[in-house]
């Protein structure tokens, strides 16, 4: 687009612009947006290449944000899996330790062999404490602290 055409286009827009009057002197209200499919005057609007670069930069930013969110979600899921695995391994080790004890030792502790599963579940927090001895011991330990 040549500069003379741009000047003519700008002059046409100014002539067509709505006029506001202040006293006896009319003032021109400039139109900042070109009407319809008219090209914008040079220097006022970004070029196609600048728009392309801005869109490319924005796309790279959005893709980066999506990738970062995906990595955070996967790592959070992995940490949860690892925590559950470790908890189950601790519970399995506690069960195995109690199963290795003979019946007399278990009786001295106050357990029956049939209670091993429920005791380990209560100890790991997988089940609500239901044994009367456990509840009494917790109440007694809380009373000593206060």
Report on the structure:
The structure is a single chain. It contains five helices and two strands; from the N terminus they run αββαααα. The chain has a domain of 45 residues. The radius of gyration is 39 Å and the shape is rod-shaped. The mean pLDDT is 77. The chain has a two-stranded antiparallel ribbon with strand order 1-2. With 146 residues, the chain is mainly α. Strand 1 and strand 2 form a beta hairpin.
Order of helices and strands: HEEHHHH
Provide mean pLDDT, rounded: 77
Distinct helical segment count: 5
Percent range of helical residues: 55-70%
Radius of gyration: 39 Å
Q: Got a strand count?
A: 2
Strand order, biggest sheet?
Answer: 1-2
Q: How far apart are the termini?
A: 87 Å
Strand content: 5-15%
Biggest β-sheet strands, sense, barrel: 2 strands, antiparallel
Structural class, judged by helices and strands?
A: mainly alpha
Give the overall silhouette.
rod-shaped
The low-pLDDT segments are none
Features:
single chain, 146 residues, mainly alpha, two-stranded antiparallel sheet, 66% helix
Note the topology.
Layout: H1 3-16, E1 19-22, E2 25-28, H2 48-100, H3 103-109, H4 116-124, H5 132-145
Antiparallel strand pairs: 1-2
Helix pairs in contact: 2-4
